[in-house]
Amino acid sequence: MHEGLRWIPPFNMTEKLTAADVVMGGKLIPAGTEIALVIGSANRDETHFDGPDTFDLRRPRTNNFAFGFGAHFCVGHYVARQVAQISVEELFTRLPGLRLDPDREPVVHGWMVRAAKTLPVVWDA
Ligand code: HEM
Prior knowledge:
By secondary structure, the chain is of the alpha+beta class. The chain has one domain. It is built from 2 helices and 8 strands, in the order ββββααββββ. The chain has helices at 39-42, 77-94; strands at residues 13-17, 22-24, 27-29, 34-38, 99-100, 107-109, 115-118, 121-122. The protein has a two-stranded antiparallel ribbon with strand order 1-4. Strands 2-3 form a two-stranded antiparallel ribbon. The N and C termini lie close together (6 Å). The chain binds protoporphyrin IX containing FE. Protoporphyrin IX containing FE binds at residues 10, 14, 39, 66-68, 72, 74-76, 79-80. Protoporphyrin IX containing FE (HEM) binds at residues 10, 14, 39, 66-68, 72, 74-76, 79-80.
């Protein structure tokens, strides 16, 4: 058995400047205000997703903020998706039986950059 995959997590925040007055959650944010958006929180919005804290690969497709939206939608999303698909395919081809290590928990923390810092796995050599 082998161990020790690590990965580079995406950022959890982005900043914007409001172009017009906007009311959110009953609060007025005047035009010209610098704001920080917490992407990780948006993707767990309980008013938008059922069971937002459940990792469910089979949930029905719906809009999410993983690659942003509108004018600033990620220009690299096609590349990122291709790299992810090819990487995962290669990983599972080269490491047969790849699975989470049943004896060690992943370590997930961070606010600005929130992700699994370590993801212990095992596979069959
Ligand atoms: C899994 C990988 C990636 C994720 C999760 C991701 C996510 C995002 C998100 C959420 C935004 C919107 C930020 C905002 O509204 O402020 C964004 C914008 C952007 N992304 Fe990505 N991205 C990824 C990969 C890439 C790659 C591979 C490239 C370049 C080849 C790239 C280039 C950009 C650029 C240039 C913008 C700014 C677009 C703009 O402001 O008009 N991204 N990305």
